[in-house]
Amino acid sequence: MIVVKFLRLNEWKAKMPTTIKQALKKWEEATQRKAAESKEIKLIGVSPPIEKMEGPFHLLANLEKFSLSTNMISSITNLQSFKNLKVLSLGRNVLKSLQGIEAAADTLEQLWISYNQIDKLKPLRNLLKLKILYMAHNFVREWREFEHMAELPVLEDLVFIGNPLEEEVSPTGKYTDEVVKRLLYLKKLDGFPVIREVEEEETEEVSGTMDLQEIDRMANNADEDDAEEPGKPPDDDDEYDDEETRAPSDTEAD
C-alpha cells in the first residue's frame, strides 16, 4: 500500500509543471554559469513544461535575451522586472493574448511569438523600439490589426506567414502589396526583402534634381576653365552663358 502511494506521488510530481525558478537552477547546473550574471538564457522545451512566467526575474538584471519557446505558457507576465531585455522568444507556447508585453516597451527590440493562438495585436503599439516581429502561424484574421503595427516607427522585419489573413489573401497575389502599404518602414517580409515601387511624381522630382545638379557641375567646370584663362577675351554669347549658369542657383535658392 505504501509503495503504491509512493508511485502515485511520483506520478503526480512528474505531471506538475516546471517553475522558472527550477528551470533556472537546472540551467545553471548544465551551463556552469550564474543566471544573475548572464545576458542570454535559454529555457527551451523544458520537461515538464513551464506554464507561468513567474520567478526571480528581479535577479536577472543583465538579461538581454530570454528564450522560453516550446513550453506551455498561456500569458505574458512580470516583464516589468527586466531592465535590459531586448529579445524575447515565446514561440510554440499556448498564448492567446499579447497583454502584458507592454511592460517591456522601454527596451524590447525583437519579439518571437510564432506558433501561438494570438489574434489581436493592440498591445504591440506600445513597443516603439521593436525592430523584428516573428509571429508566423497565429490566428490574425483582419487587416485592422495592422493598424497597431503601423504605429511602430522602427519595425523593419516581419514574419506573418501562416496566419488566416495571409492564407486568405496570398492566393490573390495582393498579400505583399497590402502589407507593405500599411507598414511604411518595413524592409523584410516573411524572409524576403521589401521592394517598393517609386511613384512617378517622385521619379520626376529626382530626375529634375539630377538635371539641376548636372547644370551646376557644368557651370562650375566653366568657371574653372575661365579661371585658367584669365586673359581670354569675352565672346558675344558670354552674357547668355552667364544667365544659363546662374539659373540653377536661382532656382535652388527659391
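The record above closes out task 2.4. Task 2.5 opens with a second protein, given below.
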Amino acid sequence: MAESTTIEYLCKFCRAVVEVFGPQYLRSPNAEDTTRILAQNEAREFYGMLGSIDCLHWAWKNCPFAWQGMYKGAKGGCSVCSNVFAKLVEGHAPPVNFKVNGRQYNKGYYLADGIYPRWSTFVKTISNPVPGGKNSYFAKCQEACRKDVEQAFGVLKSLFAVVRQGPLAAVDHQVPVAWAAFLNMRQEIRDPQVHQELQKDLVEHLWRLKGNA
C-alpha cells in the first residue's frame, strides 16, 4: 500500500475515533466526574483536590528555540499545560465547594511542586521543612499523594498514545458570561493570598488528624 494511501486512511480512522469516543473520553470532566474525583481525594484527607498538575502537560516536540525558556518543563524539554483552568475562567466549570480547617473555599486545586506560581488553584509542597514538624508532615503527605497520581497517570501514558501525545479533539471553549466576571475569576485564580491560606489550612488539617490518629 502506498504511503499516501496509508496516511489518508489513518487520518480517517483517527477522525472516526474522535467522533465515536470523543464525547465520552476526550472531554473535560463533567459534574459527575468531578464529584467522584473529589470523593476519592477526600478519602486521602485532601479536600477539594482535583489531581496533580504535572499530569496535565504534553511534550512540545518542535517548540521554537526562542520560546523554550517560557515552556521549559520541570524535567527539561518543553511542555504545554492543557487548558485546565479555561472552563473555570469562562464560568462553565463544575462547582467545587469544600471546607478545610474551618475555612470555606469555592475552587478546586491541583497538587504541584515548587516551580509553579502561587495561585489559589495550586497547593505546592514545602521545600526543606524542619524535620518532625507540621510542615514536614504536610510535605510528606503532599508529595506521596502527588506521586501516586503521577504513577497512575504514567501507566495510562504507557498504554494509550493519546494521553502521551495530547488530545485529538479540539478544546471546546465557551464564551464567558461577561468580561467583568471573566477578569474577576482570572484574578481570583492568581490570588497568592488564597494560595497561602489554603496551604496553611491543609497543613493544620493534616497535622490535627495525625494527632488524633
